[in-house]
Every structure is written in C-alpha cells, then in structure tokens.
Design goal:
Distance between the termini: 18 Å
Largest sheet: none
Helix content: over 70%
Order of helices and strands: HHHHH
Number of helices: 5
Shape: globular
Number of strands: 0
Structural class: mainly alpha
Number of domains: 1
Length: 129
C-alpha cells in the first residue's frame, strides 16, 4: 500500500513541477499556447514567490524520494510551510473568489495529510532510508 501511495505522491509532485514551470513561463512570455493558469489578481512579486515555492516543493520531494534522502520529510515541512504562508497572503490579500477559504482549507488539509504520511515510521523507512 505504501508503495502505491509513494507513486501517487510522485505523480502529484511531478504535476506541481510542471504547473510551476508553466507559471514561470507565463510570467516571462505573457502569451502562451495554453489557457493561462496564473491568477491575474496576484502581483508579479507574489507570483514569483508562489511559483518558486511550488517548484521548490516539487523538486525537493522528487529529489528526496528518488535519492531516498532521510531528511525529505523535514524538507517538505519547510516547503509546505512556505506554500501555506504564500496561500495566506494570496487568500487574505488578493483573492476575490467566494470559495477562497474553502480552497485554502483544502490545501492545508492536503499538506497535513502528506506530512503525516511522510513522518509515519513505516512509510519513511520504506522510502527514505
């Protein structure tokens, strides 16, 4: 079961890496061949931090997972903490969507569940040692 969850987390973080890379490309080019997914309500300085934190989390997880680095759970705590802080700034400072608090809550639940899993001794032993 842990192996399947590990693969699922790899897919999630691959998606995050592609998403963040696309976000950076959108910042540079402004016209992209896909429907933009960058929130136009966010200023460029915040988008840089947003995409940087997502890319940091994606690369950090994937690197740690594939090298079996035993500090990956701690690194992901820092990465998700940064992403959570960015989410607070975006949600309270810039977003106008009626579902912004629901989205923030779902994001936090996802971070928490992944971190609980990463710190579960059996999962950590089978993936990071």
């Amino acid at each position: 079961m842990f192996k399947i969850i590990g693969y699922l987390l790899v897919v999630v973080h691959l998606f995050l890496g592609v998403w963040a890379t696309g976000g950076f490309i959108e910042m540079v080019l402004k016209n992209v061949p896909w429907k933009p997914f960058t929130n136009p309500e966010f200023p460029d300085w915040l988008l840089f931090i947003h995409w940087g934190s997502v890319l940091f989390a994606a690369v950090g997880f994937l690197s740690g997972y594939f090298t079996r680095w035993d500090k990956t759970p701690q690194l992901m705590t820092v990465a998700y903490g940064i992403m959570a802080l960015v989410c607070v700034i975006e949600t309270f400072g810039y977003m106008t969507s009626e579902t912004k608090y629901l989205a923030m809550g779902a994001e936090y639940v996802a971070y928490l569940l992944i971190l609980i899993l990463l710190f579960t001794p059996r999962f950590a032993a089978s993936h990071f040692r």
